[in-house]
Specification:
heterotrimer, A mainly alpha (497), B alpha/beta (338), C mainly alpha (425), A: 497 residues, MetI-like fold, 3 domains, two-stranded antiparallel sheet, 1% strand, B: 338 residues, alpha/beta, D-Maltodextrin-Binding Protein, domain 2, five-stranded mixed sheet, three-stranded parallel sheet
């Protein structure tokens, strides 16, 4: 007996229905994210109106800009012809004609490969610091920066070839440059693949390499400087077991100073006469634009790291005098504006140094900016030290490590790791602050170069375009660095508690 | 990046550290390069162009001095200085001389321990206003807003002018020339005051130059000239007489093109002395006898330098005015080469 | 180090200065002290030699010479006949006033932006993110220049306000008009706002060059007295509430007590507002605020506000989510949750970075020199230095003043921080 199927029972399932229109898709998103409350709706409308107002004025102005003209007057004429009189549009032609000064300052055209190569190698040197001993990451960094550098070198070469008459003999060595760059990056890549730990030596040597690439001169000068550091390391290593780290370090520094001040120049001069080897010497007054900003920023931050570490340790030291001196220095530097430090470099240093000493303004500025950033780095590292749990110190004591061993093996590796985001943001701040050097007469990209461009009668009266160009580059550099530091912060986070 | 880049740089620069001794001339010769303190960029007077070459009226004087001392006008290095840093840079020996539109005043010459060795441009402070303002004299500017660059003698002159005429004004201080121009164009100030040469250069680059006028009053004397350190008389003589040589050359019709020819053909004894054919004028200041000829041949005589950089044929279009030779009713007057 | 006391008592040997950790720290400190003294001595010696070589001296008497230049914005009377020291004080006051308002505005802006960045409203949170990131990643100098430029480009020149007879005849309106019932004029030179004046002023005195207006003093004294009375009144009300459980309504009494005496005093002396009027080239009367001040204030507030927003956001995120959920469970609405529960707790995290932002803002006021805002750097470290050539004295004085300023701000803020800190028992 077949049971009759009740008519009110469904035999098959209904297909799922679309959710109500207010609960799905764009409408739902709009409701939840933009118009959830009256206040929110109001804010949304205000925000949209604001965005519209800004974009309405800026976009046509920038979009209709003139890209090829030889003077502001010509720009104005072209704009008046194409868009009608009384219309406004950007004159990007000034960037097209002067971009190289914004980037490289007054560096000789045919030597642009040197800053480009130095910049590319900077990333290879940073790799081992961020990813010590990691083959894959380092290889990626070397590869990427190598490719980009080669691309930039080709681009620069193309530009120089266009700017110079083809008969110019200087161009003949340029293919060599490409070959050398390929070789260097290939070598670095091989080391990164096989012995990633060894790559840290490249980072240690990089300051000298970068310095040499940018300034040039005899190859023996940086080698002589390097010998000084080797002497320092040897003396320190030889003495530290007997007399302790600090005294040995002091003795090493004294010997190295003796070498640098009295011996080095005699030796390197002889070597230079015997084997004259080197690149064309470039004076620092040819540095300008973003090249100058990067030189000051990178040199000051890397030089201030060791000073900052010592200051941070000094501030946490038990020794009253050391602590007082460190605190005094840090608070003094943090208490005065950077501008006054720059004016000290340009106006007062001549009073404080022995009579008749004279070295160029960029070096003086770098020294003062280094002292300035050392105080900030010291505070960042102090934060890192404070964040370490006490257990780490106690564990180091329990293992019988002395102060410096504990610092070197236990404390610093962890504290520095925690401090990396802080150091990066210090660098961003410093990099932005390099724009202030214009106030002591150096050619920074924002004001110095812009002023020089405006002094040209063809471009006198141009206003927004250079500022926007420079501002965009600053934004791109600083934004990517800050994003990277946020990523690092997340990655390096270890829960200590 | 443990090691510091600047230690290396310091060590390297210790080699190059210049030890300025008493004689700047000897230093320059030993260095093989003249270091000239210049402006950070002033239209027509000194700025690097797109190819990084410095050009301008002041720059050409430096090049002439470089040619006289070192025999090569290209062996001149230009160090940009700001209003605040210029005299310190000179006093500390960072630059050998300053050719940077600096006004010769009593206190600068004495209190700051500097020496102004001549005047290469007679300037004066003026006012520019929009024509539709209907003003014809600076004395009608009562209550006006005036754009003025800070850190120069201009603001002192302005204060003195309004005070002595018993009228009031509101200063709008601006950081540089470009800013002043923009403010003036936007109408943020009724009048823009700076040296008349700067006004002319600014006016020439405005979108509609004819709707702006430069008022007839010149309210100050601004003798602009090269500056050297006090107490180095030999070096002061070199700079002073190179400038005078350029003036004498114009007076006598010696130009860049014909200097070589004049040296052999001229019968005028002063021209012959100037170009080193007769007597040994160069040796008296520690130079060689062709020194002034080379200075003239670097960029031409005073008139040629003027015409090439700021003269009426350039977009800046300055008239010679006070800077005409004394023979043509101007103030430029060189003592005799004798 | 605990067993140091038990160490065998040895006779002191010279080598222990290096090898024995008990004495080594003393040795090191002595060496450092000697080196530091030597270094300072070396600097001083160099300075003396250099000064002698340049035939100069350290002499602050130039501060009492006539300055000769004008300053656009002056909080205390100053003319070009005043001394350089007075110019420096005028500059210092200009620094302080922009730093003071800057800190206030940056804090307000930063708190709003930080809170709104976490808002559920997609557009608002994105706009705030864009704001924070653009301002944090572009040099402050550019923002100062840009805000100054924008201010003077988008506002009308004073003559746009002019109404001529022909315009009245033809019924034409002027190109620009004043805001807020004809009381505020924003031109491309500055903002002109009304300024309170008395018809029958009480006169004033001059204390060390700073003018004291008796009317202001009397008003302030009256206000102080009124507030004291109002407070006593509130205390009485609270007492009544504690005793009887019913709180008497006192707010209108308090309002009267506070407002009436001052209002009566001002009315008696003929209080009125002086409105700016277009006369000649410019607006006259009222208070004129130059755009260099406004632009510097805006740029500093926006820039520092972006950094404060980050600190605020971090502070809010540091508060456990349980707090918010607990507040919601109690039925408190989101806005009040933020205001009453989250922000007060986040404040403790926010204050330390806030201190350093205030310090940065104060130091960054020196960048006003890019738009010629005559602050301390512009007067003492700018024009005075340039006119007198006394770079050593000017720079030393300036650094000392900034240092003192920073120390005062940080100690004030640290005291505040200590007072709101969680009292752990």
């Amino acid at each position: 007996m077949a049971t009759p199927t009740p008519t009110f029972v469904r035999t098959e399932m209904l297909g799922p229905q679309e959710p109500p229109i207010s609960q799905s898709g764009a409408v739902k998103w709009l409701r939840e994210n933009l118009f959830s409350t009256p206040l929110n709706s109001l804010l949304t409308l205000l925000g949209l109106a604001f965005a519209y107002l800004v974009l309405r004025t800026v976009v046509p102005w920038a979009w209709n800009g003139v890209w090829s003209a030889s003077s502001l007057g010509e720009c104005r004429q072209i704009i008046a012809e194409t868009l009608g009189p009384d219309s406004h549009a950007a004159c990007w032609a000034v960037i097209g004609e002067r971009w190289q000064q914004f980037i490289f300052g007054f560096y000789p055209l045919d030597l642009y490969w040197r800053p480009v190569l130095a910049f590319g190698l900077l990333f290879c040197a940073l790799g081992p610091i961020l990813y010590f001993g990691q083959s894959g990451n380092n290889l990626r960094i070397v590869g990427a920066s190598g490719l980009l550098t080669l691309g930039a070198l080709l681009g620069v070469r193309h530009f120089v070839a266009k700017a110079n008459p083809p008969s110019d003999a200087i161009l003949s060595d340029n293919p060599m440059v490409l070959v050398i760059a390929v070789v260097i990056f290939a070598l670095l890549g091989v080391v990164a693949k096989l012995r990633p730990q060894k790559l840290v030596w490249f980072s240690i040597l990089y300051p000298l390499i970068g310095f040499y690439l940018l300034w040039g001169g005899s190859v023996w000068a940086p080698i002589g400087t390097l010998v000084g550091f080797v002497i320092l390391a040897l003396v320190w290593y030889g003495l530290q077991r007997q007399v302790g780290v600090v005294v040995a370090g002091g003795a090493g520094l004294v010997t190295a100073a003796v070498w640098w001040i009295w011996v080095q120049s005699a030796v390197t001069d002889k070597l230079n006469n015997a084997i004259p080897l080197g690149l064309l010497y470039e004076r620092s007054d040819q540095f300008g634009g973003f090249l100058l900003a990067f030189v000051i920023g990178v040199a000051a931050i890397s030089a201030s790291l060791p000073i900052g570490i010592l200051l941070a340790l000094g501030r946490r030291s038990d020794m009253f005098l050391i602590k007082t001196l460190s605190v005094g220095f840090i608070e003094f530097v943090r208490g005065v504006p950077l501008i006054t430090m720059l004016f000290v470099a340009s106006l007062l240093l001549q009073y404080f140094l022995p009579p008749q000493t004279n070295f160029d303004l960029i070096l003086r500025v770098i020294i003062l900016v280094t002292l300035f950033s050392a105080a900030y780095i010291a505070e960042v590292i102090r934060g890192g030290l404070a964040a370490l749990p006490r257990g780490q110190y106690e564990a180091a004591d329990a293992l019988g490590l002395d102060y410096w061993q504990a610092q070197r093996l236990i404390i610093m590796p962890q504290a520095l790791k925690i401090s990396i985001p802080g150091i990066v943001s210090s660098f961003i701040g410093l990099f932005k602050d390099t724009t202030l050097v214009a106030l002591v007469g150096l050619a920074d990209p924002l004001q110095g170069i812009t002023k020089i461009v405006r002094a040209d009668i063809n471009w006198k009266g141009i206003y927004w375009e250079p500022y926007l160009f420079v501002g965009l580059i600053f934004f791109a550099v600083c934004f990517s660095m800050s994003r990277y530091s946020m990523y690092l912060e997340r990655k390096l986070k270890r829960d200590h508690r | 990046m443990k090691k510091s880049v600047f230690l290396g740089t310091l060590a390297a620069s210790a080699l190059m550290a210049g030890f300025a001794s008493a004689g700047t001339l000897d230093d320059v010769k030993a260095r093989g390069e003249l270091i000239c303190g210049s402006n950070t960029g002033l239209t027509g007077f000194g700025a690097p162009d797109a190819n990084n070459n410095w050009t301008g009226f002041d720059v050409d004087l430096c090049r002439a001095i470089g040619a006289a001392v070192l025999g090569d006008p290209s062996k001149v290095k230009f160090v940009p200085t700001t209003g605040e840093t210029r005299f310190t840079a000179l006093a500390s020996g960072e630059v050998d001389l300053l050719v940077r539109n600096s006004t010769w005043t009593y206190s600068r010459d004495t209190d700051l321990k500097l020496d102004f060795v001549g005047v290469n441009y007679y300037d004066g402070q003026g006012f520019m206003v929009k024509k539709d303002l209907g003003i014809l004299s600076a004395k009608e500017l009562d209550g006006a807003t005036v754009c003025i660059q800070t850190g120069t003698t201009t603001e002192l002159n302005l204060a003195d002018f309004f005070k002595s005429n018993n009228i009031s004004y509101t200063p709008v201080t601006v950081a540089d020339d470009a800013e002043a121009q923009r403010q003036y164009m936007a109408g943020a100030c009724d009048a823009f005051t700076t040296d008349a040469s700067g006004l002319a250069a600014t006016r020439a680059t405005l979108p509609d130059p004819d709707s702006h006028i430069i008022l007839p009053e010149i309210i100050s004397k601004e003798p602009l000239g090269p500056v050297v350190r006090h107490g180095d008389n030999q070096w002061g003589d070199v700079v002073r007489w190179t400038l005078n040589a350029l003036l004498t050359a114009e007076e006598k019709g010696v130009t860049k093109a014909n200097a070589e020819e004049m040296a052999s053909s001229s019968t005028d004894p002063e021209v012959r002395r100037l170009l080193g054919v007769e007597g040994d004028m160069g040796a008296m200041t520690g130079l060689d006898k062709d020194a002034f000829k080379r200075a003239i041949m670097a960029n031409g005589n005073y008139g040629e330098i003027f015409a090439a950089n700021i003269g009426e044929s350039t977009p800046i279009g300055l008239a010679r005015g006070l800077n005409e030779l004394w023979t043509n009713g101007g103030l430029q007057y060189s003592p005799p080469f004798r | 180090m605990a067993y140091v006391a038990d160490a065998p008592k040895e006779n002191f040997r010279l080598s222990m200065l290096i090898y024995d950790t008990r004495y080594r720290s003393i040795t090191i400190q002595v060496i450092v002290l000697i080196l530091a003294l030597l270094f300072v001595g070396w600097l001083a010696d160099n300075t003396i030699k250099n000064l002698a070589a340049k035939d100069k001296d350290i002499n602050f008497s130039f501060l009492w010479n006539r300055a000769g230049y004008d300053i656009g914005q002056q909080l205390i009377p100053y003319t070009n006949d005043s001394t350089h020291s007075r110019a420096a004080v005028v500059g210092l006051l200009n620094t302080l006033v922009v730093a003071f308002f800057g800190c206030i505005f940056a804090t307000i802006l930063g708190v709003f932006a930080g809170v709104l960045r976490l808002s559920n409203n997609w557009i608002v949170s994105r706009i705030m993110t864009v704001y924070v990131e653009t301002f944090r990643n572009v040099p402050l100098l550019l923002w100062i220049i840009l805000s100054f430029t924008i201010l003077s480009e988008v506002t009308p020149p004073p003559n746009a306000f002019r109404v001529t007879d022909e315009m009245i005849a033809s019924g034409q309106a002027p190109a620009a008009s004043m805001l807020l019932n004809e009381s505020v004029a924003i031109t491309n030179r500055g903002s002109d706002i009304p300024w309170p004046l008395l018809e029958r002023p009480l006169g004033g005195a001059d204390m060390a060059g700073v003018p004291i207006n008796y009317a202001v003093v009397v008003s302030l004294l009256l206000l102080a007295a009124s507030f004291y009375v109002a407070r006593r009144n509130s205390q009485r009300a609270r007492k009544t509430q504690e005793e009887t459980g019913e709180r008497p309504v006192v707010w209108w009494q308090n309002l009267l007590v506070v407002v009436l005496p001052v209002a009566a005093f001002l009315a008696w002396r003929g209080f009125h507002l002086e409105y700016p009027e277009l006369k000649g080239f410019n607006f006259r009367g009222g208070l004129s605020i130059a755009h260099s001040f406004t632009a510097l204030l805006i740029a500093l507030s926006l820039y520092t506000g972006a950094f404060i927003a980050e600190a605020v956001r971090a502070g809010i995120l540091a508060i456990s989510k349980g707090q918010t959920e607990a507040a919601y469970a109690l039925g408190i609405r989101p806005g009040r949750t933020m205001r009453l529960v989250v922000l007060p707790q986040a404040l403790r995290v926010i204050i330390p970075p806030l201190i350093s932002q205030y310090l940065n803002l104060t130091k960054n006021t020196t960048l006003g020199m890019a738009i010629s805002y005559l602050d301390l750097k512009g007067t003492l470290g700018g024009i005075t230095l340039n006119q007198t050539g006394r770079e050593l004295e000017c720079m030393m004085l300036m650094m000392a003043i900034y240092l003192i300023l920073s120390l005062i701000i940080s100690s004030l803020m640290n005291a505040f921080n200590a007072s709101v800190k969680l009292k752990e028992r």
